[in-house]
Specification:
disordered N terminus, 17 strands, Rossmann fold, nine-stranded mixed sheet, Immunoglobulin-like, alpha/beta, 2 domains, five-stranded mixed sheet
Length: 443
């Protein structure tokens, strides 16, 4: 048995080495470090092999979510980079070029750019009563007096002297309550601290979906100290065994982003957005709040929540949105991809469903909601992101009326983490810039 396991192990190593030899990585480059081009500007994509590869390569080009070209037998070498594509676009376009072994969709290198980013605009018409709709939702919620529960949570000894952490719960008149963690500096002066609110990306069971004291503490330490909140998106209990979150994902919250849209009352994201307002209602009662600064931060679904809170609640003074979801939900109407969860795209084939969706989704579209906010904006767009495509993110950024807004872009940024090969460069050009803007705002 032991000998059999050894043979299997050797075979796996051999297969792994063989795969590495066949599927050599490809490096693609363009001449713009930001990946942003003007209308009609020429773009040249260069390719190079990082090691010898005998497998034939192919190249595909996607524009605004649709593949427009697929070219076989791309010739690359390990020497000087070779031009593999060149061209220009006059209309607002999000372009992705991918190169990899023929027939292999996974082992590919992609690079992206956007042409005339400033020309993307929301596909849905802005509802005339968008602001009035959300004011009514908030007013109805506030008719119910909140019940607040705070349970102190231990922090590591090195932090416990300076900060206090609470497991926070705030009742809601409908749906799940607000649940998360709040961390405060212990010896702060009254009216001295900004509020920071962290909103979560999509999902239920994984670690990034769950609120933690550590994350709230991280935000409490930003700048000169903040009143920090880490609020989970679904209002479920904090600090539970993993089986609890597994059960929710496989049970009552299964596929929540794809639930059919029937009306406003049952649309899942309505109460998700309202929980953020409820949190801010509570946060602003703190005597420590400086009465001015409120920063909301989120990635993907968290970015959608940040856009929503900024639009719904004028107390938000800065919104940081990394590859935000729910951007330009009607993108299919304009002939390009919509942002996660691509709800309209799935229902557009059915006339009655599409009609219902088009009446409801604009009220939850990040591209529409950000149009109600004058907050300072920092937004990241991933130029090879097909979950929250650049078309919608740029439309959202453009629809912000803010006079202080920053768009951060990077040609190798997918929706998830940047490939380790490019991570240090991305950190310098995107993450470090974002951190510096936040630090300056919170100092």
């Amino acid at each position: 048995m032991k000998r059999l396991l050894t043979l299997i192990s050797l075979l796996m190593v051999a297969l792994s080495m063989s795969a590495q030899a066949v599927f050599s990585p490809v490096e693609l480059t363009i001449d713009s470090p930001t990946g942003l081009y003007n209308s009609g500007e020429q773009v040249v994509v260069y390719g190079r092999l990082l090691e010898e590869c005998d497998t034939p390569l192919d190249l595909s080009i996607m524009v605004n979510g649709t593949e427009i070209e697929n070219k076989n037998s791309v010739a690359l070498s390990t020497e000087a980079p070779t031009p593999v594509w060149s061209g220009s676009f006059t209309d607002a376009s999000s372009v992705i070029v991918s190169v990899g072994p023929q027939g292999d969709k996974k082992n590919r290198t992609s690079i992206g750019w956007v042409v005339a980013a400033e020309e993307f605009s929301p596909s849905f018409e802005t509802p005339r009563d968008l602001r009035r709709f959300w004011r009514k939702q908030v007013r109805t919620m506030r008719r119910s007096e909140p019940s607040v529960s705070l349970t102190e949570v231990s922090l590591p000894d090195k932090d416990a002297e300076e900060y206090v952490c609470y497991d926070l719960e705030i009742s809601m008149p409908e749906g799940a309550p607000v649940r998360g963690y709040m961390v405060l500096p212990r010896n702060a002066q009254e009216h001295s601290l900004p509020i920071t609110l962290f909103a979560h990306a999509a999902g239920v069971r994984k670690a990034h979906c769950q609120s933690t004291p550590e994350r709230a503490l991280h935000w409490a330490k930003q700048g000169s100290g903040t009143i920090a909140f880490d609020i989970n998106a679904h209002g479920y209990l904090n600090g539970q065994p993993q089986s609890y979150y597994d059960g929710l994902e496989n049970g009552e919250l299964k596929g929540y982003s794809k639930w059919p849209i029937v009306d406003h009352q049952s649309f899942y994201f309505r109460t998700m957005f309202l929980r953020l307002v409820r949190t801010l209602d509570y946060a602003t009662t703190s005597p420590l709040w400086d009465g001015e600064r409120v920063l909301v931060y989120g990635e993907s679904q968290g970015g959608a929540q940040a856009a929503a809170l900024a639009g719904i609640d004028e107390r938000v003074t800065m919104a940081v949105m990394n590859v935000p979801a729910m951007t330009d939900l009607g993108g299919v109407v304009a002939g390009h991809s919509a942002g996660w969860p691509q709800t309209y795209s799935r229902g557009a084939a059915d006339t009655s469903t599409a009609e219902t969706y088009s009446k409801i989704l604009p009220y939850y579209d990040a591209a529409q909601l950000i149009g109600l906010s004058k907050a300072k904006i920092v937004m990241e767009v991933g130029l090879i992101d097909r979950t929250c495509p650049p078309e919608g993110v740029c439309a959202t950024f453009n629809n912000s009326p803010s006079t202080d807004k920053t768009l951060l872009s990077y040609p190798y940024r997918p929706h998830t983490s940047v490939n380790p090969r490019y991570r240090s460069e991305w950190f310098e050009k995107v993450e470090k810039v974002r951190r510096n803007i936040i630090a300056e705002y919170l100092k």
